[in-house]
Amino acid sequence: MKRVDLIFSERELEAMLQAIDRAGCSGYTVIKQVTGKGPRGTVSESLAFSGVGANAHVVVFCRPNLLAPLRDGVRPLLNRYGGVGFVSDAEPL
Q1: What are the structural domain ranges in the chain?
Q2: Whole-model pTM?
Q3: Furthest-apart CA pair in the chain: how many Å?
């Protein structure tokens, strides 16, 4: 099993969820108004609260054979609008 963590502008949430669905992934978890610090600096809580600059964090668990279609679907969105994605191995408890 693979775990994919996607952090990107909340404005692009619907497009990202559509890309995940098109890749054939059966589900995901969405966490809205994520704040933190990255290469572009800190996202302040006041920006996240107002909705300007707010980020979303989507966690996807998928079978390894779905990773390539998922990557092909979300990478253009991350490249165009900004954001990061990470893949790691996941083992059920």
Answers
A1: 8-54+62-81
A2: 0.86
A3: 40
Tokens of 64: 């390894």
Phi, psi of 29 (to 5 degrees): -120, 135
> Using one digit for the tens of pLDDT, what is the confidence trace for 16-64?
999 999 999 999 999 998 887 777 666 655 554 555 668 999 999 999 9
Beta-carbon contacts of residue 59 (< 8 Å; ≥ 6 apart):
3, 4, 5, 6, 28, 29, 31
Instruction: Give the residue among 90, 83, 63, 86 at the shortest CA–CA distance from 16.
Output: 83
Burial class from Cβ neighbours inside 10 Å (0-12, 13-18, 19+) for residue 12 reads buried
Instruction: Give CA–CA dist 48/10, Å, rounded.
Output: 10
DSSP letter at 27? -
